[in-house]
Amino acid sequence: MFFLLVSCATWYQKSQKFQAAVTSGNFKEAQKLINKTSKEAKGKNRFLYFTDAGWVNQMTGNYDTSNYWLNQADYYIEDYQKSIGAEALALVTNPEVKPYAPEDPEKVMVNYYKAINYIEKGDMESALVEARRINIKLNELNDKYGKRKNRYSNDAFAHVLMGLVYDATNDYNNAFIAYRNAALVYDSLYTKQFDVTIPESLRQDLLRTAWLNGFNDELNHFEKQFNTKYKHDPMGERGQVIVLWENGFGPIKDEWSINFSIIRGGGGLVTFQSSELGISFPFYLGGTNKATSLNDLDYIRVAFPKYLIRPNVYNGATLSGGGISKTLDKAQDVSALLVKTLNDRMLREMANSLLRLAAKKSLESVVRDQDKTVGTLFSIVNAVTEKADTRNWQTLPSEIWYTRMMLPVGKQKITLSTTSAGGYSKDHSIEVEIRKGKTTFVTFRSLEAGFPTPVNYK
Predict the structure, then answer these.
(1) How far is CA 341 from CA 113, 173, 210, 308, 349, in A?
(2) Section 197-226 average pLDDT
(3) What is the pLDDT of residue 218?
(4) Among residues 322, 330, 454, which one has the least CA distance to residue 401?
């Protein structure tokens, strides 16, 4: 019974105490729980240990410690090597015995959080390096896929982040280039694939930096595209604040299963077919012994990973202060990136799962030939261990929103008001130090999220 319960539990269920501490904002308790599982830093789940430790330390203001752990996650991504032993063991058990292979959006979010740590420390040059590395990393990842490109091939928000940092250091030329690249990615990719349009803040920043650089042709072009006329507002005796709002929590992984019919061919060829999905996977099992174990089966169940979305409590926010009010714009839908990325590789995931099941059955056949009783027990073990990999980085936000506001110099109180679709709102008072001609960054995280619900894959 213990074996059954442990093997059937998802990663989310196994980490319930940590999740409860995080969602309630009890980061002290979350840190204690991380410390208790320090052995994970050398185990197969070490990427998730590194990222959780990095995130919790960022939330408590320990930016150097946060970057230490996030750097460990980055090194893990760069040095990740498939273990032959783990791959072989996974074929006869399930993929959770292997070192965790992070999803593409998880890999680039490591660089986002490192950039935020550097911004908080005032190290803008290092923040730029991390923002640049997001799209460099995506290019490298997508090159590996060959013709099987993922929809997540470029990151609009990474360009926005680069632009914001360049802008804050008065490098308006590079800021304009970054903003323009962001607008292109929103238009060509994000609007269609992830339902995220060009943020209004980006439109204004693009027009402003075009004006500051004297790029009149580009200014006219974007004025026509955005159907507006730009009027410059000099900063004068004021400074700026940029608020990055991380809303809710990203999805968690669960599993689902499909029944495949078995079509037997000659010479050890077996085809797994799903009439419901209209797909089939042929496998050559070799000799007759390997195919024998499938002869008395008409169909089999195979498990695959899926996401459960944690619905956002809030669907918008406004920033007010100094008699001004600005609406925040959604710049990144992390949940959509994760769901679409998994969907893009679902056929690859199915092929791997069926290969795993074929290997299990082949080994079962060999054991059964030696001892029918042991073969039967082995068959039970195969059924119990048929499981999808439900691990994922579960402290990621669901969305990232932002806006920019100019305020008088000195200590200022601003209010971030988050609102729900039902009209519920919550005000968060934030004190910021505004310096003449300078930009102050503020990152705020809303920890509220709804109960996980299934995703309709398309």
Answers:
(1) 20, 33, 34, 14, 12
(2) 98
(3) 97
(4) 330
The alpha carbon dihedral of 384, 385, 387, 389 has a sign of positive
Report how far residue 178's alpha carbon sits from residue 176's, in angstroms, rounded to the nearest whole number: 5
Q: What's the confidence (pLDDT) of residue 458?
A: 46
Q: Indicate left, alpha or beta for 322 from its phi (over 0: left) and psi (-120 to 50: alpha).
A: left
CB 414 within 8 A of CB 310: no
Give strand pairing partners of 399: 247, 333
Cα–Cα dist 392/408, whole Å = 43
Q: What is the pLDDT of residues 314-324, one digit of tens each?
A: 999 999 999 99
Model's pTM, two decimal places? 0.86
Indicate the domain borders of the chain. Answer: 154-232
Rg value, the chain, Cα = 25
CA distances from 92 to 202, 364, 444 (A): 51, 10, 45
Q: What would the pLDDT profile of 250-299 be if each residue is shown by its tens digit?
A: 999 998 877 777 777 766 677 878 877 777 878 766 554 444 455 545 56
Strands 252-264 and 299-309 turn out to be antiparallel
Q: What is the pLDDT of residues 62-112, one digit of tens each?
A: 999 999 999 999 999 988 655 545 555 555 556 777 889 899 999 999 999
Dig out the tokens for 201 from the structure.
Answer: 């803040």
Task: Count CA within 13 A, CB hemisphere, residue 81.
Answer: 4
**How confident is the model over 148-179, as pLDDT tens digits?**
667 888 899 999 999 999 999 999 999 999 99
